[in-house]
From TrEMBL:
Domain of life: Eukaryota
InterPro entries: IPNS-like_FE2OG_OXY, IPNS-like_sf, Oxoglu/Fe-dep_dioxygenase_dom, Plant_2OG-oxidoreductases
Keywords: Iron, Metal-binding
Higher taxonomy: Eukaryota, Viridiplantae, Streptophyta, Embryophyta, Tracheophyta
Native source organism of the sequence: Acer yangbiense
Name of this protein: Fe2OG dioxygenase domain-containing protein
Record flagged with keyword Thylakoid: no
Gene3D superfamilies (UniProt xref): B-lactam Antibiotic, Isopenicillin N Synthase, Chain
Amino acid sequence: MDLESNCHQFFVINLYPPCPQPELAMGLPPHSDHGLLIILMQNDLQGLQVHHNGRWVSINPLPDSFIVNIGDHMEYKSVLHRAVVNRKATRLSILTSHGPPPDKVVAPAPELLHRENRPPAYRGITYKEYIELQQTNSLDGKSCLTRVLI
Ligand SMILES: O=C(O)CCC(=O)C(=O)O
Ligand SMILES: [Fe+2]
């Protein structure tokens, strides 16, 4: 397989400086990640929270470990998460995100729809357009997947 033309990798660094009023600020608003697989490392500070059973749960950083997230394009439940800030120290997270090429239209696989005899639940959209949609401020705390539901 020609990996260069069949996938797209992002490298992201998030820097969250100390915040005097963390209860009034948000490091990164709620979202689920685009792409297939996201591998994240962070310094030894809490900040990442996942939405679980209707509430935000803080993820304790484990030394020498990565957090692996499933992205929206895996068609498996991607998790809604956010990053909060703190009063005392700078938090850093570094991640790579792996997805299809930007111009690739991602849509439910016709073979699976046919086998299940079901209409598609999502409209087809290029990976690039999906990322642009995900970066808008109009998601209102919801996963971008809700924007491509039919
Ligand atoms: O800083 C974090 O732990 C989360 C970063 C994140 O969710 C992202 O960049 O998509
Ligand atoms: Fe994320």
